[in-house]
Amino acid sequence: MSFLPSPGAPTPQYPATPRVLGLLVVAALLVVGQLYAALPLRIPVSHAFAADATFSLSTVFGVGYAAGFLVWGPLSEQFGRKRMLLFGLTVLVFATAACALAPSLIELGAARAVQGLAAACFAPIVLAYLSDAAPPPRRPLAISVMATSFLLAGVFGQVYAAALLTRFAWSGVFWVSTALLAATVVMIAVGIRDAAPAHRPETTLARRFRDSLALLVTRPVLLISGGHVTLMCVFTAFYAALIPVLQQHGAGETGMLWLRIAAIPGMFATLLVGPLAARLGGIARVARLGCLVSGGSLLAAPLVLGSPQLLAIAGCLMCAGVALSLPSGVMLYGDASPHARGIGMALNGFVLFLGASLGPLAALVPVSAPILLGCLAGVSLLGAASYTGFLRQTPYSDGPR
Questions:
Q1: Which of 253, 225, 249 is nearest to 240 (CA)?
Q2: How many CA atoms lie within 13 A of 20 on its CB side?
Q3: Which residues are CB-contacts of 140 (< 8 A; sequence separation ≥ 6)?
Q4: pTM score, whole prediction
Q5: pLDDT by residue for the chain (401 residues), tens digit each?
Q6: Which of 200, 216, 234 is the last residue of a domain?
Q7: Do 142 and 282 fall within a single domain?
Q8: CATH of the domain at 56
């Protein structure tokens, strides 16, 4: 009889087993997917209330989501990861049910704002949890897998909501989501064991919020943020820039959805982050490489606007670049806040979603799609320059992982 733990068995110090990671990946698709479910819901909800539902479905959710990152990180540091995750997801369950019951766009907007605030608990808390609870040799892979699930949620949320709309009214989408989210709360309560951070200084909650703001304005974190903010900005702006192009070809929203689905293989480039970090000599170099790949793809995109197949390949490569940089940036934030990973992950999410919020505004810029795509390439290259500046910071080494 062996007294050694099996590979999947939890240990007191590192309880984030592959089974736990799988559960969190499924939960991420459902929780983060609530953000993107608004896209197929917009038309039926607008028809139901005889008014445009974009603000009530998307804008207020985005505001709550962005604000939530800065709230949940310090809370998880003060009161514990699992406790705050369960609390936030429980609020999300009730807010989702309130969306289904909303009698007007005003009530729907209020419920979506709470839904966004609650859904924001997931990413910073789970990433901080994995930074503490995953065994060090498997930690880069665990974070990369979670980053992949966050990207996939952008496609999953749309397909999931669109599929439910073929059988249910718009309120039925929220009811099904309520049931699945409630089941997720139960599974996390039963299947995940909390892990204390390596070091959590005793302090007040107000001090933790002050620490998060102080960390944000340090030079290394500003340089990380300068690269990180470009990722989802170019990701969302790329598709916003292509809307008029697809409309000219008669593709519309269906063509956009297929273009997003075609990018899914590129999202799995997150799994290459660990090997590339070892080969290139550090995680920041992988983040810079991702920005360069995205920039090169965006420069090539204007040359293939007339070919949907080649445009899909360019989009896939752009997503691959984002997928390389995203988990790399997450790990850099974690390294910058070793004694307060919840705060570091909160800043990561806030900066990332700030970029995602700015991206769709690109569609409002009165320039042609080729010029806009060229400008987005420049944004990616600025992100690469920011990571280069970080690499030149002598107090912060970035050795291979």
A1: 253
A2: 27
A3: 273, 274, 277, 283, 327, 331, 401
A4: 0.77
A5: 333 334 444 446 788 888 999 999 999 999 999 988 887 888 899 899 988 887 888 878 888 888 888 888 888 888 888 999 999 999 999 999 999 999 999 999 999 999 999 999 998 899 888 888 888 888 888 888 888 898 888 888 888 988 899 999 999 999 999 999 999 999 999 988 887 655 555 667 777 777 777 777 788 888 999 999 999 889 888 887 887 777 776 666 677 778 888 888 998 898 898 899 989 988 999 999 999 999 999 999 999 888 888 999 999 999 999 999 998 988 898 888 776 777 777 788 888 877 877 776 776 778 888 899 999 999 999 999 999 999 987 544 454 44
A6: 200
A7: no
A8: 1.20.1250.20
